[in-house]
Amino acid sequence: MLCIVAPVSAGQADQVARDLDPTRTTPLGDDCRALCETLGFVHFACLAVLPPIDGRPSLLLELAVDPGLGPDAVVDALVRKGTHLLCRLFDLPADPEALRSWLSRHLSPADGGYIGVRDRSVSQIRAEAKLFVAVRTAVASARTGLLRQQEPPTSQRLAHAARGVVQHPDHAFATTPSPRSFWRSTDLSTPLRVALILLKLVLPALLVAMLLAGVLATIGSTAIAAGSLVVGTKTVLGPPVFLSFDRYADWALGYVIVSLVVLYAVTAALRAGVIPIASGFLVAAVALFGFLVLPWVLPGSGGYLDKLWHFGGAIGILSAWGVGVLLYVAGVVLGALVLAAAALLVVPPHLGPPVLLPVTAALLAAEALVLDALLGWLAHGEPARHVLALEALGQAGPRAHTAVLLLLTLFLVIAAVVLRVVWVGLSRAGKRLDGFNKVTPHETPAVQQTHPSIEACEASLATKVGHMISVTDVRSRLHGTALRLLMRFIMFLGESWFTEARLGNAEGIKFGHWHLIDGGRRLIFCSNFDGEFGAYLDEFILGASDGINLTWRWTELRTRDPAAEGQPGVTRARRFPPTRWFAFGGCKHEQWFKAYARDSMVPHLFRYEAYNHSNQDITRATRLRDALAAPSPDLLQDDRIMRAAES
């Protein structure tokens, strides 16, 4: 699932909008359709003009392509077969190499998405659909012949007629089962699938935590070493504390080195592909867990095991110092900025720099005195005793470590219960105060207010596969980062768990994909689906509301001008319906959500579909092919063929 999004001039956007009309055939539309047919790997495609940002509209080319086809292969095919057409659409010089470079810069792979009928190419779907029709015809003909001869049309005789279809050269592919990816393998049991999903999600988090501990320990050891040189030996930063780490400093240094090697291996693996990724994570797990865990469980470790216990205490102390150093630096910088801003507010502008500079210097000097007092308190006060206690813990035996871990676990359980009670109370109070489940007429315009251009596009797809393009604004960069992570998580769940054309309880989604564009400031959602738009939204509300809320809750609609003449703009800014606990509420405000989705839509100018089969039709045809490809015919297999053929 790919999109090419590039800014164009307003004149070019209007010209493309005039040359393409979704309600009728046009010469430019015929050229686009011919290109898609020539490529052979495009399931669905569309062209649309996006509303302007930074003063210029953008042209969108959406492509839903065969599985396993990478961006480079798509760019190469577009350059070889569509240079003239693409240069005309995007107003570029007809230079294939320049077009290749331009496409690579503006091509946007999906940040998140879901494929309903996955692992199927265009040619496979078309061939299996023809096979299904041929088998149905052969079975009907055989049944008619048997009834004419007054013989019972048993499943065995009808299945024999169905197998005869495979003898035709056009249907010879049905002698082999349909291809399946690893996650769609029939041998993958549910417990094993859950274990693999958890492994893939948890292992990277553990590696990141271990690498973070190594980085923090490095910062902490540097701070203690610097403190031993700068501050006197009587402070907690002095040589007594630093030298106490000497007995396990070699282990701390080894951990940092192993962390850096693992970080390099994982980074290189992520750039190389699926198998290297698995190998990289395996090497990382063996290196880190072997370095830290194996000596704890092996008998006869002797001094090595004792050193490792000390090392664990050292890493804890050094990491604590690393966190403290980072917080201290951040506090110094933030305090200086606040004091400089305060000086600008206090000093009248007409007094100028002669007064402003001394006031700022005085405030910064006061900050330095406060920080000096803070360091003294840290060195000689209560925190110093805590650090010395941590040092003693680092030298303690396994029993002390076990006791501390049990106490920490008990503390975390109690803290989690308390936080849960507080959070529920705040959530209930917020619900009563804000009335999140109440939708006022002012907040929700009438759902029937659909722009004529959107209605014309939907009317042109009345007997075809449905389609929508939504363009919303991301609320902030922080929201965009969270949105990107969540979309990748949802995409992973779609690949590994929701593999059989069913996302939650929602059926009928063929290709749905999200793209963050314009530097993460806007979110595009393109979807191809069965049925009409209203029923499609109802499926989301009833069957996959949590996924929609997790994605769109980070967005809003800001006022914007139309992308081209005769297209809709946004005249009233608003946010996505409010959610509770991130995933609940939201689109459950049905009319509010539908109005939000409607107003975010832009019309397509051109639409291509390689086939017009529903997800159920495609799944049924694949099931028939798998039944026909069974190696040993028997009564049970005959029954499978007939159930697939007559469903």
From TrEMBL:
Highest taxon above the source species: Bacteria
Keywords: Membrane, Transmembrane, Transmembrane helix
Keyword Transmembrane: yes
Sequence intervals crossing the membrane: 201-231, 251-270, 277-298, 318-347, 359-380, 400-423
Protein name listed in UniProt: Uncharacterized protein
Organism from which the protein derives: Piscinibacter gummiphilus
